[in-house]
Amino acid sequence: MTTQSIASPDTSRAWIDIDLGALLRNAEALSRLACVPLLPMVKADAYGLGAVAVARALDTLAPYGFGVADVREGEELRAAGIGRPIIVFTPILSADIALARLAKLTPALDSAAGIAAWTEFGGGPWHLAIDTGMGRTGVPWDAMHSISSMVQRCPPEGAFTHFHSAELDNGSLAEQDRRFRAALEVLAVRPSLLHTQNSAAIVRQVPSPWSMVRPGVFLYGVGTGGAPSVIPEPVVHLRARIVSIREMKPGDTVSYDATWTARRPTRAATVGVGYADGYRRTLSNNGAVLVAGRQANVIGIVTMDMTMVDVTDIPCAVGDIVTMIGTSGDHTITIENVASASHLSPYEILTGLRQRLARRYG
Length: 362
Ligand SMILES: *Cc1c(COP(=O)(O)O)cnc(C)c1O
What we know:
Blueprint: E1 14-18, H1 20-34, H2 43-47, H3 51-59, E2 66-68, H4 71-79, E3 86-88, H5 97-102, E4 106-109, H6 112-120, E5 127-131, E6 139-140, H7 145-153, E7 158-160, H8 172-186, E8 193-195, H9 199-204, E9 236-248, E10 253-254, E11 260-261, E12 266-271, E13 288-291, E14 294-297, E15 307-310, E16 321-328, E17 331-333, H10 335-342, H11 346-351, E18 358-361
Parallel strand pairs: 1-18, 2-3, 3-4, 4-5, 5-6, 5-7, 7-8
Antiparallel strand pairs: 1-9, 9-12, 9-16, 10-11, 12-15, 13-14, 13-16, 16-17
Protein backbone atom coordinates (compact mmCIF):
# COMPACT_ATOMS: atom_id res chain seq x y z
CA MET A 1 0.00 0.00 0.00
CA THR A 2 1.07 3.55 -0.61
CA THR A 3 2.30 5.05 2.62
CA GLN A 4 -0.14 7.90 2.39
CA SER A 5 0.61 10.24 5.25
CA ILE A 6 -2.00 12.51 6.76
CA ALA A 7 0.37 15.42 6.08
CA SER A 8 0.36 16.69 2.51
CA PRO A 9 2.40 14.53 0.13
CA ASP A 10 6.03 15.47 -0.37
CA THR A 11 6.35 17.47 -3.60
CA SER A 12 9.90 18.65 -2.98
CA ARG A 13 11.50 16.42 -5.64
CA ALA A 14 9.23 14.08 -7.60
CA TRP A 15 5.70 12.83 -7.13
CA ILE A 16 2.59 11.57 -8.93
CA ASP A 17 -0.59 13.60 -9.26
CA ILE A 18 -3.52 11.22 -9.53
CA ASP A 19 -6.71 12.68 -10.99
CA LEU A 20 -9.52 10.76 -9.30
CA GLY A 21 -12.13 12.74 -11.27
CA ALA A 22 -10.60 11.45 -14.52
CA LEU A 23 -10.54 7.93 -13.05
CA LEU A 24 -14.29 8.14 -12.37
CA ARG A 25 -15.04 9.54 -15.82
CA ASN A 26 -13.06 6.69 -17.42
CA ALA A 27 -15.07 4.20 -15.35
CA GLU A 28 -18.33 5.86 -16.35
CA ALA A 29 -17.32 5.78 -20.02
CA LEU A 30 -16.83 1.99 -19.79
CA SER A 31 -20.10 1.59 -17.87
CA ARG A 32 -21.94 3.35 -20.68
CA LEU A 33 -20.43 0.95 -23.23
CA ALA A 34 -20.83 -2.25 -21.24
CA CYS A 35 -24.30 -1.60 -19.76
CA VAL A 36 -23.49 -4.04 -16.93
CA PRO A 37 -21.82 -3.51 -13.53
CA LEU A 38 -18.07 -3.03 -13.31
CA LEU A 39 -15.62 -5.20 -11.42
CA PRO A 40 -12.67 -2.79 -11.43
CA MET A 41 -9.33 -4.55 -11.26
CA VAL A 42 -7.34 -2.91 -8.47
CA LYS A 43 -4.61 -5.55 -8.30
CA ALA A 44 -0.98 -4.52 -7.88
CA ASP A 45 -1.98 -1.53 -5.76
CA ALA A 46 -4.41 -0.42 -8.50
CA TYR A 47 -1.63 -0.66 -11.11
CA GLY A 48 0.53 1.44 -8.81
CA LEU A 49 -1.94 4.27 -8.18
CA GLY A 50 -2.89 3.19 -4.65
CA ALA A 51 -5.54 0.50 -4.23
CA VAL A 52 -7.31 2.01 -1.25
CA ALA A 53 -7.64 5.52 -2.71
CA VAL A 54 -8.73 4.11 -6.09
CA ALA A 55 -11.23 1.64 -4.62
CA ARG A 56 -12.73 4.28 -2.32
CA ALA A 57 -13.17 6.63 -5.29
CA LEU A 58 -14.69 3.94 -7.53
CA ASP A 59 -16.92 2.70 -4.70
CA THR A 60 -19.02 5.85 -5.17
CA LEU A 61 -20.05 4.51 -8.62
CA ALA A 62 -21.52 1.38 -6.99
CA PRO A 63 -19.46 -1.25 -8.85
CA TYR A 64 -20.30 -4.92 -8.36
CA GLY A 65 -17.04 -5.36 -6.45
CA PHE A 66 -13.28 -5.33 -6.98
CA GLY A 67 -10.69 -7.66 -8.47
CA VAL A 68 -7.32 -8.25 -6.80
CA ALA A 69 -4.38 -10.56 -7.39
CA ASP A 70 -3.92 -12.10 -3.96
CA VAL A 71 -5.29 -12.41 -0.45
CA ARG A 72 -3.06 -9.65 0.98
CA GLU A 73 -4.46 -7.16 -1.51
CA GLY A 74 -7.99 -8.20 -0.55
CA GLU A 75 -7.22 -7.83 3.16
CA GLU A 76 -5.91 -4.32 2.54
CA LEU A 77 -9.22 -3.29 0.96
CA ARG A 78 -11.22 -4.88 3.77
CA ALA A 79 -9.07 -3.08 6.37
CA ALA A 80 -9.90 0.16 4.56
CA GLY A 81 -13.61 -0.54 4.92
CA ILE A 82 -14.46 -1.78 1.42
CA GLY A 83 -17.48 -4.04 1.89
CA ARG A 84 -18.30 -5.12 -1.67
CA PRO A 85 -17.36 -8.53 -3.08
CA ILE A 86 -13.62 -8.90 -3.74
CA ILE A 87 -12.51 -11.57 -6.20
CA VAL A 88 -8.96 -12.92 -5.90
CA PHE A 89 -7.76 -13.87 -9.40
CA THR A 90 -4.45 -15.61 -8.75
CA PRO A 91 -5.26 -19.17 -7.62
CA ILE A 92 -5.01 -19.23 -3.83
CA LEU A 93 -2.83 -21.85 -2.22
CA SER A 94 -4.10 -23.88 0.74
CA ALA A 95 -2.06 -21.82 3.20
CA ASP A 96 -4.18 -18.76 2.31
CA ILE A 97 -7.64 -20.32 2.49
CA ALA A 98 -8.26 -19.44 6.14
CA LEU A 99 -7.25 -15.81 5.61
CA ALA A 100 -9.39 -15.56 2.49
CA ARG A 101 -12.42 -16.85 4.41
CA LEU A 102 -11.77 -14.50 7.31
CA ALA A 103 -11.63 -11.49 4.97
CA LYS A 104 -14.72 -12.72 3.08
CA LEU A 105 -12.83 -12.85 -0.21
CA THR A 106 -14.08 -14.74 -3.26
CA PRO A 107 -11.40 -16.99 -4.77
CA ALA A 108 -11.07 -17.88 -8.43
CA LEU A 109 -10.56 -21.66 -8.46
CA ASP A 110 -9.43 -23.85 -11.31
CA SER A 111 -8.94 -27.40 -10.06
CA ALA A 112 -10.92 -30.14 -8.36
CA ALA A 113 -8.38 -30.12 -5.53
CA GLY A 114 -8.71 -26.36 -5.08
CA ILE A 115 -12.51 -26.52 -5.05
CA ALA A 116 -12.39 -29.40 -2.54
CA ALA A 117 -10.01 -27.55 -0.24
CA TRP A 118 -12.14 -24.39 -0.34
CA THR A 119 -15.34 -26.35 0.34
CA GLU A 120 -13.87 -28.45 3.15
CA PHE A 121 -12.85 -25.29 4.86
CA GLY A 122 -16.44 -24.06 4.92
CA GLY A 123 -16.73 -22.80 1.42
CA GLY A 124 -18.36 -19.54 0.52
CA PRO A 125 -18.82 -17.99 -2.88
CA TRP A 126 -16.18 -18.78 -5.48
CA HIS A 127 -15.71 -18.30 -9.20
CA LEU A 128 -14.68 -20.94 -11.67
CA ALA A 129 -11.74 -19.95 -13.87
CA ILE A 130 -11.95 -21.38 -17.40
CA ASP A 131 -8.92 -21.38 -19.71
CA THR A 132 -10.04 -20.65 -23.27
CA GLY A 133 -6.56 -20.03 -24.66
CA MET A 134 -4.69 -17.75 -22.28
CA GLY A 135 -2.74 -20.72 -20.97
CA ARG A 136 -2.27 -19.27 -17.52
CA THR A 137 -4.96 -20.36 -15.07
CA GLY A 138 -8.35 -21.98 -15.41
CA VAL A 139 -9.77 -25.38 -16.20
CA PRO A 140 -9.08 -26.04 -19.88
CA TRP A 141 -12.31 -25.28 -21.77
CA ASP A 142 -12.33 -28.74 -23.35
CA ALA A 143 -11.60 -30.58 -20.07
CA MET A 144 -14.58 -29.41 -18.02
CA HIS A 145 -15.50 -33.03 -17.26
CA SER A 146 -12.49 -33.11 -14.91
CA ILE A 147 -14.33 -30.84 -12.47
CA SER A 148 -18.00 -31.30 -13.37
CA SER A 149 -18.89 -33.58 -10.44
CA MET A 150 -17.03 -31.31 -8.04
CA VAL A 151 -18.87 -28.30 -9.47
CA GLN A 152 -22.19 -30.10 -9.08
CA ARG A 153 -21.48 -30.64 -5.36
CA CYS A 154 -20.30 -27.09 -4.69
CA PRO A 155 -21.66 -24.84 -7.42
CA PRO A 156 -19.73 -21.65 -8.12
CA GLU A 157 -21.34 -18.25 -7.90
CA GLY A 158 -19.55 -17.21 -11.06
CA ALA A 159 -17.46 -18.38 -14.00
CA PHE A 160 -15.08 -16.43 -16.15
CA THR A 161 -12.34 -16.53 -18.73
CA HIS A 162 -9.58 -14.12 -19.74
CA PHE A 163 -8.69 -12.99 -23.28
CA HIS A 164 -5.12 -13.25 -24.45
CA SER A 165 -5.26 -10.76 -27.35
CA ALA A 166 -8.19 -8.44 -26.75
CA GLU A 167 -6.20 -5.53 -28.22
CA LEU A 168 -5.68 -7.32 -31.52
CA ASP A 169 -8.16 -7.81 -34.32
CA ASN A 170 -7.09 -11.38 -34.98
CA GLY A 171 -10.38 -13.20 -34.41
CA SER A 172 -9.22 -14.68 -31.12
CA LEU A 173 -11.88 -12.84 -29.11
CA ALA A 174 -14.66 -14.61 -30.98
CA GLU A 175 -12.88 -17.97 -30.72
CA GLN A 176 -12.35 -17.62 -26.96
CA ASP A 177 -15.99 -16.58 -26.59
CA ARG A 178 -17.05 -19.70 -28.46
CA ARG A 179 -14.92 -21.88 -26.20
CA PHE A 180 -16.28 -20.17 -23.07
CA ARG A 181 -19.85 -20.86 -24.19
CA ALA A 182 -18.99 -24.48 -24.97
CA ALA A 183 -17.44 -24.90 -21.53
CA LEU A 184 -20.52 -23.46 -19.81
CA GLU A 185 -22.69 -25.98 -21.65
CA VAL A 186 -20.92 -28.81 -19.81
CA LEU A 187 -21.86 -27.44 -16.39
CA ALA A 188 -25.07 -28.84 -14.87
CA VAL A 189 -26.05 -25.40 -13.66
CA ARG A 190 -24.98 -22.12 -15.25
CA PRO A 191 -23.35 -19.86 -12.63
CA SER A 192 -25.24 -16.62 -12.12
CA LEU A 193 -22.24 -14.29 -12.63
CA LEU A 194 -20.38 -14.65 -15.93
CA HIS A 195 -17.54 -12.36 -16.97
CA THR A 196 -14.83 -12.29 -19.62
CA GLN A 197 -13.93 -8.75 -20.61
CA ASN A 198 -10.85 -6.70 -19.73
CA SER A 199 -10.58 -3.07 -20.91
CA ALA A 200 -9.86 -3.80 -24.56
CA ALA A 201 -12.64 -6.39 -24.80
CA ILE A 202 -15.16 -4.01 -23.20
CA VAL A 203 -14.44 -1.52 -25.98
CA ARG A 204 -14.68 -4.19 -28.69
CA GLN A 205 -17.81 -6.04 -27.53
CA VAL A 206 -20.55 -3.46 -26.94
CA PRO A 207 -22.73 -3.96 -24.96
CA SER A 208 -21.33 -6.69 -22.75
CA PRO A 209 -22.81 -10.13 -23.45
CA TRP A 210 -22.24 -11.13 -19.80
CA SER A 211 -23.08 -10.09 -16.22
CA MET A 212 -20.17 -7.77 -15.50
CA VAL A 213 -16.87 -6.53 -16.89
CA ARG A 214 -13.33 -6.36 -15.46
CA PRO A 215 -11.63 -3.15 -16.57
CA GLY A 216 -8.11 -2.34 -15.47
CA VAL A 217 -5.71 -0.26 -17.48
CA PHE A 218 -8.33 1.94 -19.19
CA LEU A 219 -9.50 3.21 -15.79
CA TYR A 220 -5.97 4.40 -15.15
CA GLY A 221 -5.71 6.33 -18.39
CA VAL A 222 -4.28 3.87 -20.91
CA GLY A 223 -6.14 3.35 -24.19
CA THR A 224 -6.88 -0.02 -25.70
CA GLY A 225 -5.06 0.24 -29.02
CA GLY A 226 -6.34 0.12 -32.58
CA ALA A 227 -8.88 2.78 -33.53
CA PRO A 228 -10.87 2.78 -30.30
CA SER A 229 -14.30 4.34 -29.95
CA VAL A 230 -13.40 5.77 -26.56
CA ILE A 231 -10.16 7.25 -25.32
CA PRO A 232 -9.48 7.48 -21.59
CA GLU A 233 -8.56 10.72 -19.88
CA PRO A 234 -5.07 10.82 -18.39
CA VAL A 235 -5.14 9.94 -14.69
CA VAL A 236 -1.44 9.75 -13.83
CA HIS A 237 0.83 12.80 -13.98
CA LEU A 238 4.46 12.19 -13.01
CA ARG A 239 5.98 15.50 -11.93
CA ALA A 240 9.48 16.40 -10.81
CA ARG A 241 11.34 19.60 -10.03
CA ILE A 242 14.31 21.12 -11.80
CA VAL A 243 17.16 20.82 -9.29
CA SER A 244 20.00 22.34 -11.34
CA ILE A 245 20.56 24.17 -14.63
CA ARG A 246 23.78 24.47 -16.61
CA GLU A 247 24.97 26.23 -19.75
CA MET A 248 26.95 23.90 -21.98
CA LYS A 249 29.46 24.65 -24.72
CA PRO A 250 29.77 22.64 -27.93
CA GLY A 251 31.70 19.50 -27.04
CA ASP A 252 30.44 19.28 -23.44
CA THR A 253 28.87 15.93 -22.57
CA VAL A 254 26.00 14.83 -20.33
CA SER A 255 25.69 11.89 -17.92
CA TYR A 256 27.27 8.44 -17.67
CA ASP A 257 29.24 7.14 -20.62
CA ALA A 258 29.06 10.63 -22.16
CA THR A 259 26.52 9.43 -24.72
CA TRP A 260 25.29 12.96 -25.45
CA THR A 261 27.49 15.78 -26.67
CA ALA A 262 26.41 19.42 -27.10
CA ARG A 263 26.55 20.46 -30.79
CA ARG A 264 25.58 24.06 -30.03
CA PRO A 265 25.44 26.21 -26.90
CA THR A 266 22.87 24.31 -24.83
CA ARG A 267 20.97 24.99 -21.66
CA ALA A 268 20.41 21.74 -19.79
CA ALA A 269 18.08 21.26 -16.82
CA THR A 270 18.62 18.46 -14.33
CA VAL A 271 15.29 17.05 -13.12
CA GLY A 272 15.02 15.25 -9.78
CA VAL A 273 13.60 11.95 -11.01
CA GLY A 274 15.34 8.84 -12.27
CA TYR A 275 15.07 5.16 -12.90
CA ALA A 276 14.81 4.40 -9.17
CA ASP A 277 11.46 6.23 -9.36
CA GLY A 278 10.36 4.22 -12.38
CA TYR A 279 11.41 6.77 -15.03
CA ARG A 280 13.05 4.11 -17.16
CA ARG A 281 16.68 4.10 -18.20
CA THR A 282 15.59 3.15 -21.73
CA LEU A 283 14.35 6.76 -22.03
CA SER A 284 17.99 7.88 -22.16
CA ASN A 285 18.50 10.18 -25.21
CA ASN A 286 15.00 9.15 -26.14
CA GLY A 287 12.26 10.45 -23.83
CA ALA A 288 10.41 13.76 -24.00
CA VAL A 289 9.03 15.79 -21.10
CA LEU A 290 7.02 19.00 -20.68
CA VAL A 291 8.65 22.11 -19.26
CA ALA A 292 6.49 25.22 -19.00
CA GLY A 293 3.98 23.49 -21.27
CA ARG A 294 6.59 22.86 -23.99
CA GLN A 295 8.30 19.69 -25.08
CA ALA A 296 11.92 19.12 -24.05
CA ASN A 297 14.04 16.10 -24.92
CA VAL A 298 15.88 13.85 -22.50
CA ILE A 299 19.63 14.10 -23.11
CA GLY A 300 22.19 11.57 -21.93
CA ILE A 301 21.63 8.50 -19.81
CA VAL A 302 18.81 8.60 -17.25
CA THR A 303 20.43 8.16 -13.82
CA MET A 304 19.06 6.66 -10.63
CA ASP A 305 17.77 9.93 -9.15
CA MET A 306 18.17 12.55 -11.87
CA THR A 307 17.43 13.05 -15.56
CA MET A 308 18.75 15.80 -17.84
CA VAL A 309 16.65 17.60 -20.46
CA ASP A 310 17.45 20.16 -23.15
CA VAL A 311 15.74 23.45 -22.26
CA THR A 312 17.75 25.68 -24.59
CA ASP A 313 14.71 27.55 -25.88
CA ILE A 314 12.47 27.17 -22.84
CA PRO A 315 12.48 29.75 -20.04
CA CYS A 316 12.66 27.88 -16.71
CA ALA A 317 14.37 28.01 -13.33
CA VAL A 318 15.51 25.73 -10.54
CA GLY A 319 12.44 24.63 -8.56
CA ASP A 320 10.12 24.66 -11.59
CA ILE A 321 7.92 21.61 -12.12
CA VAL A 322 8.54 19.30 -15.09
CA THR A 323 5.89 16.85 -16.31
CA MET A 324 7.52 13.53 -17.20
CA ILE A 325 4.19 11.75 -17.84
CA GLY A 326 0.79 13.37 -18.17
CA THR A 327 -0.57 16.81 -18.94
CA SER A 328 0.90 20.28 -18.70
CA GLY A 329 -0.87 23.15 -20.44
CA ASP A 330 -2.19 21.98 -23.82
CA HIS A 331 0.18 19.02 -24.12
CA THR A 332 0.07 15.48 -22.83
CA ILE A 333 2.80 12.86 -22.73
CA THR A 334 0.73 9.71 -22.55
CA ILE A 335 1.76 6.54 -20.78
CA GLU A 336 1.66 4.93 -24.24
CA ASN A 337 4.18 7.55 -25.53
CA VAL A 338 6.53 6.74 -22.67
CA ALA A 339 5.98 3.01 -23.08
CA SER A 340 6.82 3.00 -26.77
CA ALA A 341 9.89 5.19 -26.23
CA SER A 342 10.95 2.79 -23.46
CA HIS A 343 10.25 -0.37 -25.48
CA LEU A 344 7.98 -1.51 -22.64
CA SER A 345 4.26 -2.06 -22.26
CA PRO A 346 2.11 0.71 -20.74
CA TYR A 347 1.27 -1.77 -17.96
CA GLU A 348 4.94 -1.95 -16.99
CA ILE A 349 5.32 1.84 -16.97
CA LEU A 350 2.30 2.23 -14.66
CA THR A 351 3.13 -0.58 -12.27
CA GLY A 352 6.80 0.38 -12.36
CA LEU A 353 6.26 3.81 -10.75
CA ARG A 354 7.99 3.29 -7.44
CA GLN A 355 6.86 3.90 -3.89
CA ARG A 356 9.55 6.58 -3.51
CA LEU A 357 7.15 8.87 -5.42
CA ALA A 358 4.48 10.34 -3.18
CA ARG A 359 0.96 9.91 -4.55
CA ARG A 360 -1.05 13.14 -4.47
CA TYR A 361 -4.77 12.67 -5.09
CA GLY A 362 -6.92 15.39 -6.59
C1 LIG B 1 -5.57 -7.64 -15.05
C2 LIG B 1 -6.81 -8.35 -15.41
C3 LIG B 1 -7.87 -7.67 -16.02
C4 LIG B 1 -7.79 -6.22 -16.46
O1 LIG B 1 -7.07 -6.13 -17.66
P1 LIG B 1 -6.84 -4.72 -18.39
O2 LIG B 1 -6.22 -5.10 -19.67
O3 LIG B 1 -5.92 -3.94 -17.51
O4 LIG B 1 -8.16 -4.06 -18.51
C5 LIG B 1 -9.06 -8.36 -16.21
N1 LIG B 1 -9.17 -9.66 -15.85
C6 LIG B 1 -8.16 -10.35 -15.29
C7 LIG B 1 -8.36 -11.77 -14.92
C8 LIG B 1 -6.95 -9.73 -15.05
O5 LIG B 1 -5.95 -10.42 -14.51
